[in-house]
Amino acid sequence: MSWHFTEDHDTFRDAVGACLAADPARHTAMLTALELPGLPAGPRGWWTDPADGQVAGAVLVAPAKVPLLAGMPAGAARALAAEWPGRAGEVSAVRGESEAVEEFARATGRAFTVTRRMRLFRLGELTPQEPAPRGAARTAGTTGTPGASGTAGEADDLARALAWMREYARDVGEDPDADYRANVEGRIDDGRLWFWAAEDGEPVAMASMSPVVAGQARVSLVYTPPAHRGRGYGGAVTGAVSRAALDAGAAQVLLFTDLANPTSNALYQRLGYRPVRDHTAVAFG
Question: Taking the model in full, what pTM does it have?
Answer without folding.
Answer: 0.88
